[in-house]
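General statements about sequence and structure are easier to judge against a single worked case. Part of our work consisted of pairing the sequence of a single chain with a tokenised description of its backbone. The amino acid sequence and the backbone structure tokens for this protein are reproduced below.

***
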Amino acid sequence: MIRLKRIIFIILCGFAAAKPALAAGDGCSLAGTVNKRAEAHQDSIQKYADKYGISSDMVKAVIAIESCYNAQAVSPKGAQGLMQLIPATAERFGVADSFDSNQNIHGGTRYLSWLMKRYDGDLYKAIAAYNAGEGAVDKYKGIPPYSETQHYVRRVLTVYNRLSGQAVALPVVTASVGGGKTSVKPEQKALPVGKPGRAGWQVNKMKAPHLYKH
């Protein structure tokens, strides 16, 4: 009987080890779920969002899609932690330990802010560059024709809209083209024009956060 239990235990362990890891963003698309997972990191998110002029809801959305709030997440390409910083990016933005949640959020938020300034407040380009790198965005002068990056931008903005109550237009993804890639139509939808009041101010700030000093 003991031997049988041991065999069952070994089989179950083997099954658990063989299960694929949770894909980044799975189970992290609803506002309630994201806010609940973000609670443990709220102080760091708000602190660095305020410091670098980025919406805290955007930081939450990026973390949700990058790691689903798994501070120990490691991608096949070596990206680490909550905001999935590759070692070169971590070093570039002063992160000594990417598995330290506070440091990771600091570096990732600083990088997002840097990208927003680099692309003059173009949210599509900034989010695409966070996923594919500045080189790819510069080469294609917009969201690169990579299926992963195009859907990444849409997923981040979808979560952001749900968290913030904003209505930032999603870029249009066209049908698949050669090589299994997809492309974004050149005439991407523009960000909505800000309306009077707080909502309009928030939209304009998202478009050009570097113009709004804290």
